[in-house]
Amino acid sequence: MRDEPARGLDEGALRALIPRVLAGLVRRGEDFDTAEDALQEALVEASRVWPEHPPRDPFAWLTTVSVRRLVDARRSEAARLRREETTYAQPRPGGTEAGDDTLFVLFCCCHPDLSAASQVALTLRAVGGLTTREIADAFYVPEATMAQRISRAKRSLRGRRLDQPGDLAVVLRVLYLVYTTGHTDRVDLATEAIRLTRQLTLATDEPEARGLLALMLLNHARLPARIAPDGSIVTLDRQDRSLWDVREIAEGVRVLQSTLAVRTDAAPPGRYQVEAAISALHDDAASAEETDWPQILAWYDDLVALHDDPVREHPAAVLGRAIAVGHVLGGAAGLRETDRVREVIGDRHRWHAVRGHLHELEGDLPAAASSYAEAARLATNVAERDHLVRQAARVRALDRSGSS
Amino acid sequence: MPKYLLLKHYSGGPEPHRPVPPMDQWAPEDVEAHMAFQWHVNDMLQKNGELVDAQALVPSRTWVRYGGPDAAPVTTDGPHPETSDLVAGWFMIDVESHDRALEVAAYVSSEPGPGGDPLYEWIDVREVMTLPPAED
């Protein structure tokens, strides 16, 4: 396994080459599995050789060495494969765009037959160029476990036709999952997801790809304000907005506007574009009080309307809409909206946390405290649990000081 | 060096030395002090080169057993958490001696509670068995 990027080429440039080399090998009929192994070995070789002898053409170098590894792996068929090796080393006829290669490998990694965990791991490795160790760290599992997960995923791709266009919706979902998985000290998955989605937008005109990129940028812009120095969560209404990344917001808005400009009544914006629009409205408010809740609610109406049965298909959207309803029509109205999804997500911490917020809006502090406490009991993330315990304690203190 | 698991509990164990209400009913500043102490213990163990792992567990639990051939696994929530041991989380440490493990556990137990006074929480200290045979 490769431990550090090969020197002689900066890491970003090297990682951008990985899907291109891999796509070339798979397009020529190699198994995804064996091709990826061969490429990993070539990368190890590169980290050894390049510091002394930097290659003139890193792409050709990696392709040639990967092919040599493939040949070594099948020495029994040496004669035939050696002939092919010379063919492989030739420049590729026509030469496709780098973006096409990325898309092609993304479709392989996000094959619908793979589990979500496998799709994510394989994408980070084969498209993102992260090492198995880095991916293992990002998901807090032992390296051996992640290595096993990746090789099982690759094995299940064996023998499948990978020349068909894949399902872009699955690719978008996987990239969003990579983004929301967040970041650890060593690997910033959010930034990685943004990088990959940006590459994807070069390869497809699908508005939802740009919608997803905009959504990530507009959310990511708030990250510096979202986590306090002690690691605790700062909610949107309490964030220091001067910490928001205005450059990222500007790019997100620009990307979003470019997709919304081409929409028609026949093709209304999809969920990522709508969620990006909601995020943009939050980013646009100079203070929490200036948030344009009526317009946010209108976008939530659109988001919910994308589904025949939003309660079951997208309960998070119904819950998000309940918050907007609470801000426009009052906490009680918002609470009634949360009742619609009680049966589906009433046992999740987020449902109780939203109700805590709505009770607080309504001024019912004891009910807010109970909801926050229940949410804390159900939380599965330490930072969120701690945040919810703090919310409960804060609201109870507020209630005591108000009634004394 | 031996490894020890220092277990914290939601419920169970010896009679509490100092019974306290759930943390969401504490004063906000006491909650802050308590949480800051947990991070401080993490940092300290890390800097000492003694930390192996620290994790927290969600309080809900499911017991499960093999249901038999061709049968679904059998699950139950009981016994009720109020009447049984319910682990809340752990520090796993790699230390010089059993005495050092007890020292760390006592320090963990000194975490601030309501009013900033120590919580005196009982910590369950368990030595981890080594895997390969011990050398002569």
Descriptive notes:
- The complex is a heterodimer of chains A (404) and B (136).
- In chain A, 69% of the residues lie in helices and 0% in strands.
- With 404 residues, chain A is mainly alpha-helical.
- Chain A is built from 22 helices and no strands.
- Among the domains of chain A are: 11-96, no CATH class; 295-404, Tetratricopeptide repeat domain (Serine Threonine Protein Phosphatase 5, Tetratricopeptide repeat), CATH 1.25.40.10.
- In chain A, helix 1 packs across helix 5, helix 9 runs antiparallel to helix 10 and helix 13 (246-260) crosses helix 14 (271-284).
- Chain A has helices at 11-27, 32-49, 58-73, 78-89, 98-109, 116-126, 132-138, 143-157, 168-180, 189-203, 207-220, 223-226, 246-260, 271-284, 293-305, 310-313, 315-329, 331-339, 342-345, 349-362, 365-378, 382-403.
- Chain B is α+β, with helices and mostly antiparallel strands and 136 residues long.
- Chain B has a domain at 1-8 and 26-59 and 84-129: Dimeric alpha+beta barrel (Alpha-Beta Plaits).
- Helices cover 24% and strands 25% of the residues of chain B.
- Chain B has helices spanning 28-48, 98-109; strands at residues 3-11, 51-56, 63-65, 74-76, 86-94, 124-127.
- In chain B, strand 3 (63-65) and strand 4 (74-76) form a beta hairpin.
- The chains are: A mainly alpha (404), B alpha+beta (136).
For this entry, give a set of tags.
heterodimer; A: 404 residues; mainly alpha; Serine Threonine Protein Phosphatase 5, Tetratricopeptide repeat; elongated; disordered N terminus; B: 136 residues; alpha+beta; Alpha-Beta Plaits; two-stranded antiparallel ribbon; 25% strand
What topology emerges from the helices and strands here?
The complex is a heterodimer of chains A (404) and B (136).
Chain A: H1 11-27, H2 32-49, H3 58-73, H4 78-89, H5 98-109, H6 116-126, H7 132-138, H8 143-157, H9 168-180, H10 189-203, H11 207-220, H12 223-226, H13 246-260, H14 271-284, H15 293-305, H16 310-313, H17 315-329, H18 331-339, H19 342-345, H20 349-362, H21 365-378, H22 382-403
Chain B: E1 3-11, H1 28-48, E2 51-56, E3 63-65, E4 74-76, E5 86-94, H2 98-109, E6 124-127
Antiparallel strand pairs in B: 1-5, 1-6, 2-5, 3-4
